[in-house]
Amino acid sequence: MIWLMNLNLIGKVKNYLKLIRIHQIHKNAFVFAPLIFSKGFFFADKTILTLLAALSFYLASSLVYVINDYVDIESDKIHPNKKFRPLASGAVTKKEAMILLFILITGNTISVFLWSRKIEVSIVLILFLINNILYSFITKKIAYLDTLQNSFGYILRVLAGSYAISVIPSVFLIMLTFLIAFCISLAKRILELNFVGKKARKSLQNYDKSLTVKLFNVSLFLFTFIYGIYTITTDQQNRLILVTFPFVLFLAFRFLKLINSSDLYEDDPSKLFLQNKLNFIISFITVVILIVVVYEA
Q1: I need a labelling partner for 185 at 20 to 30 A (CA). Which of 28, 108, 196, 198 fits?
Q2: CA distance 137 to 139
């Protein structure tokens, strides 16, 4: 009897973790970008502050995920993939979700207060919450504005990472963050249009597939082009960063091919991309080379 209760408890915890998207915690890796490119990784105080900022953003993201799923219960029930989400499937009840929301609201309030000594981080966290709450209730129903707003959230992550360790993010970092986030958001819409249909999301009814594909292609080109400009205009000491450009170009071509010809559906395009072993290995090598070059300069 006890082991059955333990199994039920474990299952419930798993559903709660699924509801707060524990599997998407990697999105907050953007908070670490300023730490890495400012060569602050080996300074314990800066690393700890960045880690705390990333955790604060995950806490804020968790609140937004629960709100979004609560608002979308009915529409998620008819979605081929989202119907398995904890709230839509009934694995987590509305009452349980409300209790979790209260806990997360309390946690986020404490988080914003604790960052008051670095008020810029508190402001960015508040902007992130406002941006995503507006998305949950209003802008996710507006074609293309939803993808732009999602991309803005990644810029806020980079800004929080910068303010946490008191560095100024470069224009290149902001632009590249926005473009790669915009590409991923557009890729998600393309996959939805291909495999789920316009009925799955209200904003999809106003998405034009041809235009969306063109926007994705142009955005990916701009990302690659601007990254190339960055590699040849960076400081003389960092010129070896140019070595990473062929890898980034290759990965861009692979991503382009995947989204334009994929016969698989995944809610997270980046996850779909990295499921391919070659893509994962090349991505890993690129990141390692980038970090080595930055810290060797």
Answers
A1: 108
A2: 7
